[in-house]
Design a protein that fits this description.
It comes from Geotoga petraea. The protein is α/β, with parallel strands linked by helices. It is built from 8 helices and 10 strands. A hairpin with a 2-residue loop joins strand 3 (50-55) and strand 4. The radius of gyration is 16 Å and the shape is globular. The model has no long low-confidence stretch (mean pLDDT 97). Bound molecules: 1-O-phosphono-alpha-D-ribofuranose and uracil.
């Protein structure tokens, strides 16, 4: 079924085996324009920009996912199921739940805990914690090491809500699930990888802290989170 309702590509092979996937489509544009050689725009439906180019000679794609599980649920499923994409590496921003991680630190998700009904609605998956591909994580760790970039490994929280009436709710989630930080997509991405037999992983950069209330600007979030981008690209290479 190509093109799909949300991706206008009508041929297989235009999108690479590995897709680097930030939430923000402008971050996808930034990665394509600053890191890929000869990037070609393949999708602009709903301004969800997707590009294919090469990195150190290897074909690679980068595409935005939008915010939240319904959005990444659509894009990652279409990429895995209809465009034969094998690997999706999310590169996102997150809010720290603990002082152990600081602004700009890079986190490699070892598991995503969520209260979301996405996985159960999608495929009857009842677990509230889903795992990324162990193989992709190993390669991402090796890539980070080769680039001399420190990463923190641990569980993350994939939340359906950005704003909570009780802003201290995170303390309970941190305590019960040992989640280092919060973002809004990985649980659905990992569920779709499981359902389609493909591979997914997630690197996050700490954009703000629920503990200290420090925060980066939206400009910084779009452009300065380059360490996780370099790790993901190096892994694909
Ligand atoms: O920076 P991205 O990848 O969009 O990730 C985080 O930022 C958004 C919220 O501001 C959510 O999508 C969350 O997961
Ligand atoms: O989902 C997110 C992303 C960044 N910061 C947060 O507090 N939540």
């Amino acid at each position: 079924m190509i093109p799909t309702p949300h991706i206008e590509v009508d041929k297989k092979g235009v999108i690479a085996d590995t897709v680097i996937m930030p939430g923000d489509p402008l971050r996808a544009k930034f990665i394509a324009e600053n890191f890929l050689e000869d990037p070609k725009l393949f999708n602009k439906v709903r301004n969800m920009f997707g590009y294919t180019g090469t990195y150190k000679g290897k074909k690679i794609s980068v595409m935005g996912s939008g915010m939240g599980m319904p959005s990444i649920g659509i894009y990652s499923y279409e990429l895995f199921k209809f465009y034969d994409v094998k690997n999706i590496v999310r590169v996102g921003s997150c809010g720290a739940y603990t002082d152990d991680v600081k602004l700009y630190d890079v986190i490699l998700a070892e598991a995503a805990y969520s209260e979301s009904s996405f996985a159960e609605a999608m495929a009857g998956i009842k677990e509230d914690t889903l795992k990324p591909s162990a193989e992709l994580n190993k390669k991402l760790e090796e890539a980070a090491k080769s680039l001399n970039i420190d990463i923190t490994k641990g569980t993350i929280h994939s939340s359906d809500v950005f704003y909570r009436v009780n802003s201290d709710d995170y303390k309970k989630i941190y305590k019960e699930h040992n989640a280092l930080a919060v973002e809004m997509e990985s649980f659905a991405l990992f569920a779709n990888a499981q359902v389609t037999g493909k591979s997914a992983a997630c690197l996050l950069t700490v954009s703000d802290s629920l503990v200290t209330k420090e925060a980066t600007t939206s400009e910084e979030r779009m452009k300065s989170f380059t360490n996780m981008m370099k790790i993901a690209l190096e892994m694909a290479e």
